[in-house]
Amino acid sequence: MKSKTARRIRWIAIALLIAGLSAYVRRVPWMTVLTTLRTASPGLLVMALCFHLLALAGKAGIWWTFLEPLGGPRYTTVARGTLMGATLNSLFVGSSGEAGRVLLMSRLTGIRSSSIVATVVLERVIDLCGFTTLLACAAFLFPIPAMVRAGAAVVVVVVVATVLTRRALRRPASGAAPRAPVPASLLQRCTDYTRHVLASTRSIATPRRIAIAVALTEVDWCSELVSYSLVARAAHFPIGVRGTLLALLAVNVGFLVRVTPGNVGVFELVYATVAHSLGFSTDIAISVALLLHLVQDVPTAMLGLSLGARFFASAPSETHMRPSQPCTPTIAVDPSSPAPARSISPC
Q1: In degrees, to the nearest 5, what angle opens at C-alpha 282 toward C-alphas 276 and 286?
Q2: Is 235:294 a contact under the CB 8 Å cutoff?
């Protein structure tokens, strides 16, 4: 009975998604889109793609920084895993890419999945810090409404409170009584898994790694800003740096949850709303947003799918790990024996 109910809910969700996408397709000004595609500058679009790939390289650098203390893999493997996560996010709803890259990296390296989840959580927190920094800069550099400034202040306060809470939790508790063993129920296993994730997070997040990750997330966000600006310039859309910054912040407000594959429809709606509030044409703004999808998501998905088939087909091996230090076998001689014996101890 439960399987039938779950199947019905799944089919209803698919039907609603198809209906929403159909309504979106009917409302797209396709003539304006085709005109924008024909007149766009190919050179600027290629440059925009390069900056988008640079942003993905920054994300991979953040993740690799947090995977390093776990005996993590090579940077190239982490970059491919990041690309696979971006591909899954562009093809499925929700944050499917986060779960997919955790499973992929755990399978390739043999590292415990809870430890990899801790690195992904840290990466998302650093990503939120980069978004907050960009929002704060926009609030002070441009004439943004007071409500947005208040929201930026609230986000900064939340981030500071999170950091202070983390520092308080790192202090060892005194006089804690040992817990009695309990049966390994589902709730207990979930609690143990969450506890291990938090413990891994506290051990991985050193000041040095946090500083490196913060610098890389600034590279990530600035590269995305340049990519958005280049696509607008390629489409001859005079939204400017200020409008591009506002659009980037607006479309990434709900970056944790994607209600459609690749946020198709929602992305165009938010981008067009920001452009309309600045006095630009809504139809041209929708065309530029679709062009952003074509420049960023389509090449990323093609690269991710081409690499994903090889990744999932390969078995876990040492080729994905960083090279270890060479070791020399030692020879021990026992002088007390009548005939000195030698034993060789392997590495």
Answers
A1: 120
A2: no
